[in-house]
Write a structure and sequence with these properties.
This protein is mostly helical. The chain has one domain. It has ten helices and no strands. Helix 2 crosses helix 4, helix 3 packs antiparallel against helix 4 and helix 7 packs antiparallel against helix 8. The longest helix has 21 residues.
Length: 215
């Protein structure tokens, strides 16, 4: 097996360590049975509180960064080097760690939606694009009240930002496009609820201490 393939597998396994399910096991709860049923940071905050959600974000963002900034750039002993170098391992590991989060082998292939893991992966692949992505997310949530919409628009802005900068075209752009497509796919139920007028809104931005509630 080539080094790149081994790194992809390791990144997927790392991504399968879902923060909410790891911490939830210590508490004796499975947040997939609570609230929206999603194993992500928003549902963790709504059902378990700020401290729990902070731990979830730390794990999920951290593993995205570890996969792209550390694992992808570390030579693995005893493994034959692959044909791809440069930014390709980081891009491949970014996709793999997100897929691991969404479809975790350790938790019956039922994970989160990949947003926090994407944040960590952007930090590890193209940190200059992180602030614009988070800004778009924040504005979308504040203006619309829809956290899911903010997540999708933030991911799309990452892809557009990668396309606009010559230094991030190629591997980073491929990763950004695939990541945006995955985020939109994992939010397909949010899209359906928004179209039906049934999607919960954050009346005040929960990031600053308010609880999200239905409109």
């Amino acid at each position: 097996m080539t080094e790149l393939l081994v790194k992809i597998v390791l990144a997927y396994l790392l991504g399968s360590l879902v923060g909410s399910l790891l911490i939830g096991r210590l508490r004796g709860v499975d947040i997939r049975r609570l609230g929206s049923g999603n194993a992500g940071g928003t549902n963790a905050l709504r059902t378990q509180g700020k401290l729990f959600a902070a731990g979830v974000l730390l794990i999920d963002i951290g593993k995205g960064w570890l996969a792209t900034a550390v694992l992808a750039r570390t030579a693995l002993p005893g493994v034959a080097a692959g044909a791809y170098g440069g930014a390709w391992p980081a891009a491949a590991c970014g996709v793999a760690v997100m897929l691991g989060h969404v479809y975790p082998v350790w938790y019956g292939m039922r994970g989160g939606k990949g947003v926090a893991t994407l944040i960590g992966a952007v930090l590890g692949t193209a940190p200059a694009l992180l602030l614009p992505m988070l800004t778009v997310w924040l504005l979308a949530v504040v203006l619309s009240g829809y956290v899911g919409l903010g997540s999708m628009l933030g991911a799309v802005s990452f892809a557009l930002g990668a396309a606009a900068r010559p230094e991030t075209r190629g591997p980073v752009l491929v990763f950004a496009v695939l990541a945006a497509a995955l985020i939109i796919y994992t939010h397909r139920s949010n899209i359906a609820r928004m179209r039906a007028g049934a999607e919960p809104r954050a009346r005040r931005l929960w990031l600053f201490g308010s609880r999200a509630s239905s409109s």
